[in-house]
Design brief:
25 strands; alpha/beta; single chain; Rossmann fold; 3 domains; twelve-stranded mixed β-sheet; Formyltetrahydrofolate synthetase, domain 3; 19 helices
């Protein structure tokens, strides 16, 4: 039985009953149908002084086409804590329609470890993505209208940094020309589209602590330069309040449930390869304020999502993880060891041991922050006893516990041993977190530190454009901001074909983007794109809908 069928056959609890597990009254939940809801501002304000519970961060080794099941483990682990009678909540990102209809599929877990209603979460959900797209493109319209109506701010149309967005993979919109057809149709200029989840407004929404903070961050967004080189912001365009109004409902965290009835806050969806890859600060804070244990995840491997969680999100959140779960699969390890995708179901201990080098690097990354961690070996039916024993042995040699999980088939029951191990870790005295870099370091030093210490790069090079930007950004007073690296998720390097643990490689930084509202500088490495394209056979072509509205093929 596939994931969608399992989700469609589930009997869900009314959202008010899910909220009651975290002591929300029905009046504090704004329902979207029977099984989804947003938490009101009044409810959040009433819990503002609550102490935080403990936080478990789920990350993974470098992802492969074989799949790792990080979201599935996150959901299954939370359900396991619930089976151990812990007051637990999940904090996850919202799926983007781009991957849902493209190559990657949805992002609600799988099997018996899912957040539901699966269809609705993966599609329109509560409208957050639409609100972000609308707000982003309103700013684009106001900017172009300003140019059309006399350009009082003397904006240089060659130096506009704000892009339009769409939450669909559409490569044809990456580079476009607008304003054609004569003076009545606007000022002709080059423009670009990004996917909505890569936009700065998405990052702003996910890092804002409240409406006031959202408004201040929006006001600080850099949209362009004028003809004298002066920075033009949203505040200069007098658009701050209009954008905030469009986002005030989207800012409220969404509450849903797992198949086992565990509360789950699913809110915000920045990609981790081209954005900071973590769900919203407001949703995570609310989970921490209402549950004893919060389980959250960061996108892709530790080199992307986890690093950004620790260097960008945690300082804003005001809390670092109390424990980290590193998700791995035998199939992915063998692929990193050189085995082709079609041969992964065959036992191959040599490839498995060779591919362990990738997992080892990710374990070293988390250890560099002095965070306690455990490996969750996500079981597949093709895994053999010899392969499982080898992975456990290799982890033990690094003094890391490796726990077999089987959450797709068994739900929370398949992660009880993992939850029990984490309970032991959470009960121990924790070392202070060691920061990867200090805010006082230069932007160049921060980028180099991430590339060398987290990716394992031998050296970092900067294009002439980036060298000029580094000087300009320092003069603008942006040097203390953290770095949000944009690179391929498929390799520790910036070359997606280099699997395992690459050595002797160079990371090239080709462009910087100032995301002042979000509060970080994006560094683009390699050929990473902020508007993905569709594959030859997109998921959209496999989907069908019956006359009664039943959907099939949504993965």
């Amino acid at each position: 039985m596939d994931d969608l069928t399992i989700a469609q056959q589930a009997r869900l609890e009314p959202i008010e009953e899910i909220g009651a597990k975290l002591h929300f009254s029905p009046a504090e939940i704004e329902p979207f149908g029977h099984f989804k809801g947003k938490i009101s501002y009044e409810a959040m304000n009433a819990r503002e002084e609550n102490n935080f519970g403990q936080l478990v961060l789920v990350t993974s080794m470098t992802p492969t086409a074989a799949g790792e099941g990080k979201s599935t483990v996150t959901v299954g682990l939370a359900d396991a804590f619930a089976l151990l009678n812990k007051k637990v909540a999940i904090a996850l990102r919202e799926p983007s329609a781009g991957p849902v209809f493209g190559r990657k599929g949805g992002a609600t877990g799988g099997g018996l470890a899912q957040v539901v209603p699966m269809e609705e979460i993966n599609l329109h959900f509560t409208g957050d993505m639409h609100a972000l797209t609308q707000a982003n493109n309103l700013l684009s319209a106001l900017l172009d209208n300003h140019l059309q109506q006399g350009n009082a701010l003397n904006i240089d149309s060659r130096k506009i940094y704000w892009n339009r967005v769409l939450d669909i993979n559409d490569r044809t919109l990456r580079n476009i020309t607008i304003g054609l057809g004569g003076p009545l149709n606007g000022w002709p200029r080059e423009d670009h589209f990004q996917i909505t989840v890569a936009s700065e407004l998405m990052a702003v929404l996910c890092l804002a602590k409240n409406i006031a903070d959202l408004k201040n961050r929006i006001a600080s967004i850099v949209v362009a330069e004028n003809t004298s080189g002066k920075i033009i912001t949203v505040a200069d365009l007098q658009a701050t309040d209009a954008l905030t109004i469009l986002l005030k409902e989207a800012l409220k965290p969404n509450l849903v449930q797992t198949l086992a009835g565990t509360p789950a806050f699913v809110h915000g969806g920045p990609f981790a390869n081209i954005a900071h890859g973590c769900n919203s600060v407001m949703a995570t804070r609310l989970a921490l304020q209402t549950a004893d244990i919060t389980v959250t995840e960061a996108g892709f491997g530790s080199d992307l999502g986890a690093e950004k969680f620790l260097d960008i999100k945690a300082p804003v959140l005001g809390k670092y993880p109390d424990a980290v779960v590193m998700v791995a699969t035998i199939r992915a390890l063998k692929m990193h060891g050189g085995l082709p995708l079609n041969d992964l179901d065959t036992e191959n201990l040599a490839a498995l041991e060779a591919g362990f080098s990738n997992l080892a690097k990710h374990l070293e990354n988390i250890a560099a922050f002095h965070l306690p961690q455990v490996v969750a070996l996500n079981r597949f039916t093709s895994d053999t006893d010899a392969e499982i024993a080898l992975v456990k042995k290799l982890c033990a040699e690094k003094n890391i516990s490796c726990i077999l999980t089987d959450v797709w088939a068994k739900g929370g029951k398949g992660a009880v041993e993992l939850a029990e191990k984490l309970q032991d870790i959470l009960a121990q005295q924790k070392e202070p977190v060691v920061k990867l870099y200090e805010s006082t370091a230069t932007l160049e030093k921060k980028i180099t530190t991430i590339a060398e210490k987290i990716y394992g790069a031998q050296r970092v090079t900067f294009t002439k454009k980036v060298q000029k930007q580094l000087r300009q950004f320092a003069e603008n007073g942006w040097g203390r901001l953290p770095i949000c690296m944009a690179k391929t998720p498929n390799s520790l390097s910036d070359n997606p074909t280099r699997l395992g643990r690459p050595e002797n490689f160079t990371i090239e930084i080709r462009e910087l983007q100032a995301k002042i509202g979000a509060g970080f500088i994006v560094a683009l490495a390699g050929s990473i794109l902020t508007m993905p394209g569709l594959p030859k056979e997109p998921n959209a072509l496999k989907m069908t809908i019956d006359d009664d509205g039943t959907v099939h093929g949504l993965s």
